[in-house]
Design brief:
alpha+beta; 4-stranded mixed β-sheet
């Protein structure tokens, strides 16, 4: 396809995404056709997230996030992440319980006394990871109330996840990039982390959570696992041992 045709496809997608009933089959075909153009823009121009969202709005839908990840890596995004979590889940929870001096980690693992569902265990693993690695997740994960000001709670969040609650009820889980909500309506924390992975591939890890994202990508998802830091390499070896 010519550059002109690719630009026409991109413009047509932007129009289609504004419709009440989106033709996702057509969107998928055009996203496939324009993949090279999109990657060239993102890699070479390094646009702001807001600019990417304006030009490629379909990229900020959950189904196209999964599709784009597959185009990039030939890996099933959610399937790979959740399989990796489940593979190491028991080992991680054992390790977490040995760190009784880390208050937040203890609070998270105690949640399993009341709810031992797979979804809760996955959530505890992911939320506990930065605490276990002695990193600061305060600008990555936040719990807010539905009445809180979005501009306030997203401030200083370069990359993050926000859980919106009304009292004790969870209303929404959203992904934050560059201090703006880019994806909302997600069902839980594992789902939000999966959606976030695509965007993290295009940027440097937040320095406060360098090891957390490295573990998610290189250990849980086994992407680029052949080259990892000594800390993450050591953790992976501990996870593979039969006893802690």
């Amino acid at each position: 396809m010519t550059q002109s045709n690719l630009d026409m496809d991109r413009s047509a997608m932007a129009v289609e995404m504004k419709k009440r009933k989106v033709d996702w089959k057509q969107i998928g075909e055009m996203m496939n056709n324009t993949f090279a153009l999109r990657r060239k823009e993102i890699v070479e121009d390094e646009p702001l997230v807001a600019e990417v969202k304006e030009r490629w709005p379909a990229l900020f839908s959950d189904r196209q996030i999964e599709a784009e990840f597959a185009r990039l890596t030939s890996v099933d995004l959610k399937g790979s992440l959740f399989a990796g979590i489940d593979q190491y889940l028991a080992r991680f929870l054992e390790l977490y319980k040995t760190k009784s001096g880390i208050v937040e980690l203890t609070r998270l693992t105690r949640q399993l006394d009341e709810d031992i569902s797979a979804q809760r265990k996955r959530t505890v693993l992911l939320l506990g990871l930065p605490h276990f690695l002695k990193e600061d997740p305060s600008c990555f994960f936040k719990i807010v109330q539905a009445t809180d000001d979005e501009q306030v709670f997203t401030k200083k969040m370069k990359v993050g996840i926000v859980m919106v609650k009304e009292g004790a009820d969870v209303l929404d889980v959203s992904v934050i990039l560059e201090e703006a909500v880019v994806l909302c309506g997600l069902k839980d924390i594992p789902d939000a982390v999966a959606m976030l992975i695509l965007f993290v591939l295009n940027i440097d890890y937040p320095k406060e959570l360098r090891y957390t994202f490295e573990v998610i990508q290189k250990v849980l998802m086994n992407i680029g696992g052949g080259q990892c830091s000594s800390l993450v390499h050591g953790l992976r070896n501990r996870l593979l041992r039969k006893s802690m």
